[in-house]
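Progress against Task 2.4 (sequence-to-structure conversion) is shown through the following example record, which the project officer requested during the mid-term review.
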Amino acid sequence: MLVILAVLLSLQAITCSASAETIYVEPGNSIQTAVNNSHSGDTIIVKPGTYDGDIDISTANLTIMSSSPHKSIIKAKNNAFNIYESNVTIKNFDIRGPGRSSGICFSFDRNEGTNGAFYCTAQNNKISNFSMAADIGFYMYSGSESILNNEICNCETGVYAFDLMFETLTVSGNRITGCDNGLYIVDAPCIITNNIFNNTVNVNVSDETVNIFNTTKITGINIVGGPSLGGNCWVTPSGDGFSQTHSDNNGDGFADEPYRLEGSGYVDYLPLIPQNASIVAFLEPPAQEE
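Structure tokens generated for the chain above:
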């Protein structure tokens, strides 16, 4: 009986020591130090302030978040986050890069001693001034990422995905604007829905994998204020994008015809037409100086 009791007490101690913790990062302290001291399952909450980038994450099942959306600012001299393990979630930050010709905001990869960055999520971040906002590549290193509800602007490429094989990337609810390329996809199956694209080139995509650019029509307020979810809003800085030049005569929030993406065989069968006045104003091209 005493032996059984001792075993139970040992198991309880192990369970308690392995329980998830919440780690707080105050202004003036280092996010990297908090990551280095974390364990699988922990949550790191970053208080409002300005912090350094180049954060390496080699712990799986970790959540790193700003305590107040976009009040914690990360200024990266190179990359902001290098993610080497799975099930990492990063959300609610304002992340600023060194310039659109260098740096990656989220690099999903693998280094020695890690398993690779699979099933990670970047959510509700403001991302600007990087060469790439998110870089997901090579099937043995990363895949099945979710890029959700971020504002990505003034980057050379918004989201780059390469050689993901059967690992599906989800890109949904994002505003990707002012980039040379919104999405650059090579041999990477993706589900791409409910985004605003407003870039020089919105999508570069090969025809060698299955990519989906709309859900079936379901009720719900979409990213441009319409009453249903479906595809994406396709606009350009020059004002001649599909969603800017096509009609929605029945007022359902979708264009009256599908959008066949230039240079590929892909189709968005439910392209969004802006209905919210503030969104329409946001998408209008800037006035030309006389």
